[in-house]
Specification:
This protein has one domain. About 40% of the residues lie in helices and about 20% in strands. The chain has four helices and six strands. The protein has a six-stranded mixed beta sheet with strand order 2-1-3-4-5-6, with helices on both faces. Helix 4 links the parallel strand 4 and strand 5. Helix 1 crosses helix 4. The protein is globular, with a radius of gyration of 15 Å. The termini are far apart.
């Protein structure tokens, strides 16, 4: 499994690589000025799991009703160092492998983990009895 880390996670990417994770930064693929949609499309075309702190990627995935790419959202409400970001990510990857492999949005917080399988489908409208 390979990971594409968003713009603000460059240092976290370096730490992940040092830990043996196949990780690339958007800059490695000249995507540092790309739109979120272009980054998501690139991740899908090249079988990356996208890692970001930007919740807009989740919204884009939900609108597309697709199963790829998987997304890991690092959501911390207080600043974390790149080492702390990488540690939180690396500590959770083993248990997330199957979900990420099959398509999911994963939200990782310091003390909580949430997984939503893709595709994210819109709610089914209630049908009235006639």
């Amino acid at each position: 499994m390979k990971f594409l880390l968003d713009s603000n996670l460059a240092s976290c990417c370096a730490v992940a690589r040092e830990a043996g994770i196949e990780a690339a930064h958007v800059r490695d693929h000249d995507l540092q000025h790309a739109t979120d949609f272009m980054i998501l499309e690139f991740a899908q075309q090249h079988a990356f799991v996208l890692v970001s702190e930007d919740t807009y990627f989740g919204e884009l995935l939900a609108r597309q009703c697709t199963v790829a790419p998987s997304l890991v959202l690092l959501r911390t409400y207080e600043p974390m160092t790149p080492d702390e970001q990488a540690a939180v990510l690396l500590a959770n990857l083993p248990r997330l492998h199957d979900d990420l492999d099959q398509g999911a949005i994963v939200v990782i917080e310091r003390s909580r983990l949430r997984v939503r399988r893709l595709p994210v489908l819109p709610p089914i409208p209630e049908q009235r009895e006639q």
